[in-house]
């Protein structure tokens, strides 16, 4: 199985032996590594999230001690390279979204073999499989994805006329609705759940809307979050109670980490959990 050469977003990397000391630079990669049974030794902190998001601590209680020992490596766009090198990693994982991975890949590759995934919610399944391949755990990822698709299809099969689901997030002054190609949107698509017409776009993960355009978030069900977890960021807005889905009592506050920040398999499982729980009521 090793040595093995994997093809990734910045070329090809040869990994001589099964990685044991892995560092992750990008959001979602901690999730993916844990899902196939490996706890990284170091990780950067995602925007608005901790080094180890709370949902991963909850999902992997048996790894609590190892997760507590994960070394923080700064922010994902400017990782602490000295701290990273001091961990003597045998594999570094980073994604190409939102940063200049050309120079970063060269720098990281001088420390240890480096694999670059594509990033963003659109590519979470491909990135999961690539990461698992680099770890020598490809079959585990394939089995997990098969189970995910089976479970998502079972949810969709419950409906003869499936309800539309809407996704909305606020971080600071920025308010966005999320399309089919977003992370949470892809999980809904796996379940065959339709989207409101204004959220059926596939050319981007999200679109910014103004506060006056909040009614664009309407649907049969609305799943919303605000960075930092303050529901009042939405509920205090003058137009909030005028949105039909809010008036119908079908607007659900969700975990920001799992729906909008960490595009990984365990987050996808949590999104599907939420969809199942909400649509079953």
From TrEMBL:
Keywords, sorted A to Z: Signal, Transport
SUPFAM superfamilies recorded: Helical backbone' metal receptor (SSF53807)
Keyword field contains NADP: no
Gene Ontology BP, a term: iron coordination entity transport
CC annotations in GO: outer membrane-bounded periplasmic space
Ranges where the Fe/B12 periplasmic-binding domain occurs: 21-281
UniProt cross-references to Gene3D superfamilies, sorted A to Z: Nitrogenase molybdenum iron protein domain (3.40.50.1980)
Coiled-coil regions listed in the entry: none
Top-level taxon of the source organism: Bacteria
Transmembrane segments: none
CDD domains, sorted: FhuD
PANTHER family: IRON III DICITRATE-BINDING PERIPLASMIC PROTEIN, IRON(III) DICITRATE-BINDING PERIPLASMIC PROTEIN
Family: Belongs to the bacterial solute-binding protein 8 family.
Protein name: Iron complex transport system substrate-binding protein
Organism for this UniProt entry: Kineococcus aurantiacus
């Amino acid at each position: 199985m090793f040595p093995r050469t994997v093809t990734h977003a910045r070329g090809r990397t040869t990994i001589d032996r099964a990685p044991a000391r892995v560092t992750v630079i990008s959001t979602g990669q901690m999730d993916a590594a844990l899902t196939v049974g490996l706890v990284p030794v170091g990780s950067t902190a995602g925007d608005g999230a901790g080094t180890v998001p709370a949902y991963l601590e909850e999902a992997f209680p048996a790894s609590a001690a190892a997760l507590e020992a994960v070394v923080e490596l700064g922010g994902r766009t400017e990782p602490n390279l000295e701290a990273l090198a001091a961990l003597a990693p045998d594999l570094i994982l980073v994604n190409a979204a939102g940063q200049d991975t050309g120079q970063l890949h060269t720098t990281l590759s001088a420390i240890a073999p480096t694999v670059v995934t594509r990033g963003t919610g659109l590519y979470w399944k491909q990135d999961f499989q690539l990461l698992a391949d680099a770890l020598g755990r490809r079959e585990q990822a394939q089995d997990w994805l098969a189970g995910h698709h089976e479970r998502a299809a079972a949810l969709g099969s419950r409906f003869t006329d499936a309800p539309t689901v809407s996704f909305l997030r606020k971080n600071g002054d920025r308010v966005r609705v999320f399309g089919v190609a977003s992370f949470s949107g892809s999980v809904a698509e796996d379940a065959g759940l339709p989207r409101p017409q204004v959220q059926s776009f596939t050319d981007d993960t999200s679109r910014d809307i103004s506060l006056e355009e909040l009614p664009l978030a309407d649907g049969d069900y609305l799943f919303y979050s605000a960075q930092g977890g303050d529901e009042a960021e939405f509920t205090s807005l003058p137009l909030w109670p005028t949105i039909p889905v809010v008036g119908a009592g079908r607007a659900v506050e969700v975990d920001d980490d799992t729906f909008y920040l960490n595009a990984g398999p365990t987050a996808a499982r949590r999104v599907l959990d939420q969809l199942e729980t909400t649509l079953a009521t």
